[in-house]
Amino acid sequence: MRDRWIFKINWFRERLFFYSDYFLFVLLLMFKTYLLADLTGTVFYEYGVWGYIKNLFAFIFGGGSFNTIRSGLLMISLGYILLLSFWTLFFTRRKRIYILIILNALVSFVLFADVIHYRYFDGFISVALLLQAGQVGNLTDSIISLIQLKDILFWVDVFLTIPLFIFIWKKKWFAEKKRAIVAGILAFVIGWFCVQQPLHVFYQYGGKKILEKMIASESIYKFTGIYGYHFFDMKRNFEDYVLHKKRVSKERANEIDEWFSTNTGKTSPETFGIAEGKNLIVVQLEAIQDFVINREVEGQEITPYLNELIKDSAYFPNFYHQAAQGRTSDADLLVNTSLYPLATGSAFIRYSANEYDSISKVLKDDGYQATAHHAFKGSFWNRNSMYSSLEYDQFYSKEDYQPEETIGWGASDEDFFRQTVDMMPADKPFYSFMISLTSHHPYPMPKKHKVLNLDNVENELLENYLHSVHYVDQSIKVFVEELKQKGLWENSVVVFYGDHDAKVMEQGTNSETFVTGDKNEFELYKEYDQVPLVIHLPEDQLAGTYEKTGGQLHLAPTLLHMLGHETNDKYFMGKDLFLEGNRLVALRTGSVTNGKVWYQQAKDGIFSNGTCYEFETGKKIDIKECSSIYEEAQQQYRISDDIIFGNLIKKFK
User: Fold this and answer.
1) What is the C-alpha separation between 400 and 408, in angstroms, rounded?
2) For a Cys-Cys bond, which of 148, 422, 549, 601 suits 595, CB 3.0-4.6 Å?
3) What strands lie across the sheet with 597-600, from one edge to the other?
4) What is the pTM of this model?
């Protein structure tokens, strides 16, 4: 009997040692999965790791519920790790170690990328964004500013295993053994069970609908874990673009065509043609939000010049950015084509070869010269290709500017504005679309430009941002003076608007307090997405403050109507901002307003879990009051997506 027990113990100890590399791999990935949850502030398991172990023992010995084991992300994460790696057990130990070292490094990279992406976008990275990997080299400063000391924990073991990899390769330390088929099958079965049990419950509560929509990465993550999110994200992209590449039926195309004929093209009779024949200059301001307008800090105006300019211009304080993951490129798309951005990725990269209706096309048909200006690489956001599709006559990029001063990403805004004025044609009307650069995250500013006293701000990122915004404001002053000297100011419609939020409103910190003050929850939501819109016309026409709601989607028809262009035959989804009443403003986050109510979408993307506010008072009201604008927004998303996915404008022509 004693010999039998000794044999069993030795057998178990041998197997335990033989699979120790695999156990260590699983343990490391479980730790990194927990680390990701900790660094993103998401819930891994309600009672913590030790609480899970306690509940597990309670369940095994008959004193606990299986629900406590299945809930949270620990069980399903373990399952996905086993399903990801079970096949490595079919190899000899030496080969298995090679594979596990490489697999660990790859997963560590994805988890690290998820954390950095979450800090900036409040969501996890997707396949569509990975296709934009070429942009990463240009985002070095922003990425570095988002890295924290704890992040090194994703990489410590990866670097430690490099010498182990070399040692095994040279010494052949581990003896070869037969493939462990049984162990691999067992790992697969356990992994499958650990994944299927939580998913089964998720599906019972409407999980399939959530997975079909993929509205928000966190709505998937909170039920499936980070590995489940990536699995379903890859599955969706593979189905959409490989197995079932999206095609729009003729019937659906006809429906969309009919929608445009009945819902767009209306103009304000008071403003139509008010600036006919004038030049159009549109300036997209990098990360400029509305909370800086008419705002003082320590008795100093943050944007003194813009504060004066809006007195002689049409100013829209309830104007919102509608950009999604494509950020600056999304704002560009919204303003110039009046279509919504994609839910994931950027249309500039994924669909740059499409045919679009655009401001530049409409004005070129009327004899205008259309140019785009951005003092950065033309390849960034694939602008070289996209601007060709938008039919600009010329795109002036980094190579066309000779800056006297470089700030952050490139030429200072003052240099950019001065030199762009010199590029504007004098012999015929023109459309110049400009994208500023200096106020890009993380907002580095030379000491000589830090002229505001911000000692009491006590938040480095916010402090840098305010200095940056103040500098941009003064650069705009230089720009306007240059236009006046060239005789262009009184012969042009000049537009300034912010492209997206600045990511400086960190919840629960003094930066949020600075931005929102004592505002309520609803006003905070509004503030987060509000960007300034200033439209100046010759002789200060239409000067005043317009409280009606609007968004970037509505700019194209608004500007073209002022220049005397009908847009009934164009596929612009927006409506003239000067028409009576409010515009529907739908954000790709799922939130939407019509100026009467505001629907704030919950992170899980489920309508009933969101909140409905009365726009004027900010009071919470019955969620049903927001159902109609929510459904209208969803309809518009689908129409815009179908136009882009199916390249319908080309077919409509």
Assistant:
1) 18
2) 549
3) 585-586, 592-593, 597-600, 611-614, 620-621
4) 0.80
